[in-house]
Amino acid sequence: MEALRMALSYVQITHDTSLYQQIHRRLQDIPSTLPDAVSSVPPLDNMWIELTIKKAQLKLEKLDTDLKNYKSNSIKESIRRGNDDLGDHYLDMGDLCNALKCYSRARDYCTSPKHVVNMCLNVIKVSVYLENWSHVISYVQKAESTTGRTEKEVDPVVQTKLKCAAGLADLATGKYKSAAKNFLQASFDNFKYPELLSSSNVATYGALCALASFDRQELQKNVISSSSFKLFLESDSQLRDILHMFYQSKYDSCLKLLDEIKNTLLLDMYLAPHVKALYVQIRNRALCQYFSPYLSAEMHKMADAFNTNVKDLEDELMQLILDGQINARIDSHNKILYAKDIDQRSSTFEKSIAMGQEYERRTKALILRSAMLKYQVQVK
């Protein structure tokens, strides 16, 4: 309720009248049983809607006329800025598709790497709003290739924006390990991206994706010991505790803290669709790490450590065994989990033989290629 009221107030500083009306309808649809639900809904400001539509149309006509004049004069820089201004106005009106078209058109009039990067950032921003994640990745790569041409032109603020945008795209498409790596490369000192996310978002997304996908060594090296990511975590002591408890194998306390923040995470527009999957992966990784040092483990003790009962734990372990995440067998009668006895010597011998055969194949291929080049043999 409070979030909708704040959104309604914020939208009135833009030209997005359709979003204003949509939010107002949402407020009116709130059940009257909620305390102060009806009395706290402000009346629809029809005067503001009419005035804003007129202002937006006048500004649109002016910007469109200016752009036509720039094109008639064939001044690239002016045409580029004209497209950007028109894109900014469409974005302010909530017309994302036309905003994307205008920003994309500026591409043909970029005269420097800085202009190309600015165009990419504009397209990335609107593509995130449209949830066009393949477009986001494509333009992140284009911007990175542009900034990477000369080291002097690399802007740390731009680099951080690109890593965060790539992280959001990877998160949205379920590539949690790649998302974690991108968020972990963001620089706290150079973080300025209010259009898409906050520094606390970077901390949350980076930490949860890392917990779900990193092994113990990666977690310690890239997250817990990371001097740059620590700065993001400073604002969230609970998240920091979760990371440390997981690394210290205090899984009961770690999972309890995760449950405490779950409802808050479900309100996050980027993270909400992935909370369930991330929590499952984090729990599965914890189960695997708990058992990894042992040849056998009592399931009663294991159930206590994970705050569950033996029956549910057995079902979880059975699924992990079937998925190949735990190499073990279950003694269902005595409730003991046994690690499968692997003959390390035979396994190493088999790997060595396979590696030798691969080297032999590659060597023969290289010899054949050299002979063909030497005698100028061509296959037509």
Automatic annotation (TrEMBL):
<dbReference type="InterPro" id="IPR000717">
    <property type="entry name" value="PCI_dom"/>
</dbReference>
<keyword id="KW-0539">Nucleus</keyword>
<dbReference type="Pfam" id="PF21151">
    <property type="entry name" value="CSN1_C"/>
</dbReference>
<dbReference type="GO" id="GO:0005737">
    <property type="term" value="C:cytoplasm"/>
</dbReference>
<dbReference type="Pfam" id="PF10602">
    <property type="entry name" value="RPN7"/>
</dbReference>
<protein>
    <submittedName>
        <fullName>COP9 signalosome complex subunit 1-like isoform X3</fullName>
    </submittedName>
</protein>
<feature type="domain" description="PCI">
    <location>
        <begin position="176"/>
        <end position="344"/>
    </location>
</feature>
<keyword id="KW-0963">Cytoplasm</keyword>
<dbReference type="GO" id="GO:0008180">
    <property type="term" value="C:COP9 signalosome"/>
</dbReference>
<dbReference type="InterPro" id="IPR011990">
    <property type="entry name" value="TPR-like_helical_dom_sf"/>
</dbReference>
<dbReference type="InterPro" id="IPR048624">
    <property type="entry name" value="CSN1_C"/>
</dbReference>
<comment type="similarity">
    <text>Belongs to the CSN1 family.</text>
</comment>
<dbReference type="Pfam" id="PF01399">
    <property type="entry name" value="PCI"/>
</dbReference>
<dbReference type="InterPro" id="IPR019585">
    <property type="entry name" value="Rpn7/CSN1"/>
</dbReference>
<dbReference type="InterPro" id="IPR036390">
    <property type="entry name" value="WH_DNA-bd_sf"/>
</dbReference>
<dbReference type="InterPro" id="IPR045135">
    <property type="entry name" value="Rpn7_N"/>
</dbReference>
<keyword id="KW-0736">Signalosome</keyword>
